[in-house]
Design brief:
30 strands, alpha+beta, five-stranded antiparallel β-sheet, 8 helices
């Protein structure tokens, strides 16, 4: 007996089981890469090395060890990115193999359709062998991609993809093919070759190996690559930013320790040919606002640009940008953490894929090799007393001090702003009190080379008055903020402001503090928390996929059992029948043997 319903259940379950198994296997690969990479360990080791420099800022071996830790960290990010990229290349290869199998199976099913129709036309009865072959091929086809089967009156079938396009129509088979993505040419998409030409159907496929591969790439692999890149970008940006705020052993401002891959932008292959000369360059502006998402940037009418989420299609921002004197247009997407500069002519309707963090880990490098270039020293330090013949002499009567400073992006309310000290500063500046006091407030001025740069008042016994020294260059921009405080002032008391020397460790301490500072997700996560979140996300996906694969395998087994119990062969019953047939044969053979003996005896008697 044959049940088309039960056979359909087997086909559907085969597509679900194959797709779930493919997704689960791929996620186990991604999880294996991230969990074995020890990126959290390397992050901790790097910041531990920074802390060692802060403890002994003039020690060259400590500085060299810190650069070694930096190199190990960047190598780890590069290695993980390369391994994830290899998984992506493997997905491309498996997609090609799957499409080739789908096309072969579709062709064979179409040929069997014709043979079945021919056999029925000759009046030879139901061609069960051909029907069984076709059912087996359909099971194999569903293992590659989810399809729907529609039976025809002439015993033929039509096979449709999940989006409704025909894969087999009677004796005609239609083909699929792999083609380069319209944005990133390294990724393969799936196209349908029908009577009306070729059409991209990548987002409309589900089920089977092919559907599982597409789901793995879109929902797991690419987010993992972007998340790893975001982690690398964030660490590099914060460390480099802190490095730029301090002074190295030569007294110069710090230069970058790390370099990461830039914002990646791809033009759509269907863009206007006139836009081929256009150049789009991206820049990360705010790590805390980056999410690891990808975006579609589209040139709209009247010079407006529209940014939308590549996964959801949700429009996030529309802007006309700012045109510079050179003709380039700057598009500032600050809420997403990046900006794009457009040079050249772009036609209305042209689209671009923006991947802010994809290359972060793959392009991460340690570009500093000289340990003396580590900017451990504070840019400015305040010391009670006056410089006399190159030595600091403290004859102050009071106890006023300037605290160790910190970087602030903007000057705070009530702060005394100081401009003109330079960075790195040359020489010294003096903060001098014009009156003595033990209560109330005291006035002061800040001068350098005989020029008054600022003046203010401090309340004695209070939390202090902020002294905001402007950084003249960008980066870092902003201010270096120190607090002036104390309870007693002598008239003429002076605090000398000078650049941090070889023994200064203020900037190294601030850099070590980045280990626990909120950098990501709007300041909610530090580097280790972000790394743990990435690993947890992939672990959860892998566990869910594994459970789903087991459940789908069970559904397939149940569907096969139901089909076999209805239309399959019972081996025990067939064995019993064979014994009965054997016994009947043996009895008939014995009867013939007895008859033959009697017949021979009669002949001999005549």
């Amino acid at each position: 007996m044959y049940s088309s319903f039960l056979q359909g259940q087997v086909w559907s379950a085969s597509a679900g089981s194959s797709g779930a198994a493919t997704l689960s296997q791929g996620l186990q690969q991604i999880l294996g890469v991230l969990s074995s990479g020890s990126v959290s360990t390397q992050i901790q080791q790097f910041f531990s090395g920074v802390a060692q420099v802060a403890a002994n800022p003039s020690d060259i071996p400590s500085r060299q060890a810190m650069l070694g830790d930096a190199q190990t960290l960047s190598n780890t990010f590069q290695s993980l990115a390369q391994q994830l990229n290899q998984i992506g290349q493997g997905i491309n290869q498996q997609m090609q193999q799957s499409v080739s199998s789908i096309n072969q199976l579709s062709t064979q099913i179409a040929q069997l359709n014709q043979q079945i129709a021919n056999s029925a036309g000759l009046g030879n009865g139901t061609p069960n062998d051909l029907l069984d072959q076709r059912d087996q091929l359909l099971t194999q086809l569903n293992a590659q991609v989810g399809v729907q089967v529609v039976r025809q009156n002439n015993s033929q079938i039509n096979v449709f993809l999940s989006n409704g396009q025909a894969l087999v129509a009677g004796s005609t088979a239609f083909s699929l093919k792999t083609q380069a993505s319209p944005y990133n040419q390294q990724n393969l998409d799936i196209a349908y070759e029908g009577a009306q030409g070729s059409a991209d159907i990548t987002k409309n496929l589900s089920g089977g190996i092919l559907g599982g591969l597409l789901q793995l790439r879109a929902q797991s692999l690419q987010p993992a690559e972007n998340g790893l890149g975001l982690l690398a970008d964030g660490i590099a940006a914060q460390v480099n930013g802190q490095q730029a705020q301090g002074l190295n052993l030569q007294g110069s401002s710090g230069t970058a320790i790390f370099q990461t891959g830039g914002v990646q932008i791809f033009a759509n292959s269907s863009n206007s040919s006139g836009s081929s000369a256009a150049a789009l360059q991206g820049k990360i502006t705010n790590i805390g606002n980056l999410t690891g998402d990808e975006y579609i940037l589209r040139k709209g009418a009247s010079g407006y640009w529209q940014l939308s989420n590549a996964s959801t299609g949700a429009v996030l921002q529309t802007t006309s940008g700012t045109v510079s004197t050179g003709g380039a247009t700057s598009l500032n997407f600050s809420t997403e953490g990046f900006q794009v500069q457009v040079s050249g002519s772009v036609a209305t309707g042209d689209r671009f894929l923006v991947e802010p963090t994809r290359l972060g880990a793959a392009g991460m490098q340690t570009i500093m090799s000289d340990p003396s270039q580590i900017a451990a020293a504070s840019p400015y330090v305040g010391s009670p007393g006056v410089m006399t013949s190159g030595a600091l002499v403290n004859n102050n009567l009071g106890n006023m001090t300037l605290s160790a400073g910190q970087f602030v992006s903007g000057s705070t309310a009530g702060a005394v702003q100081v401009s003109g000290l330079g960075f790195p500063m040359t020489g010294t500046a003096e903060l001098q009190f014009s009156n003595g006091a033990s209560s109330g407030s005291a006035d002061f001025t800040i001068t350098a080379n005989g020029t008054t740069l600022a003046s203010g008042t401090v309340a004695l016994g209070s939390s202090g008055t902020a002294i905001d020294i402007a950084y003249p260059n960008d980066p870092p921009g902003g201010y270096y903020q120190m607090l002036l405080s104390g309870t007693l002032v002598g008239k003429g008391d002076t605090i000398t402001i000078s650049p941090g020397g070889a023994g200064s460790n203020g900037n190294a301490q601030a850099m070590a503090g980045l280990a626990t500072q909120g950098i990501f997700n709007g300041g909610a996560n530090n580097a280790n928390a972000q790394a743990a979140q990435l690993l947890t996300q992939v672990t959860t996906q892998a566990n869910q996929a594994q459970d789903q694969a087991q459940a789908q395998a069970s559904v397939l087994s149940q569907a096969q059992s139901a089909q076999q119990s209805y239309s399959g062969v019972n081996l025990d019953q067939e064995a019993a029948n064979l014994i009965l047939y054997q016994q009947a044969y043996q009895a008939a053979a014995k009867a013939i043997s007895v008859g033959n003996t009697l017949f021979q005896s009669l002949i001999q008697a005549l």
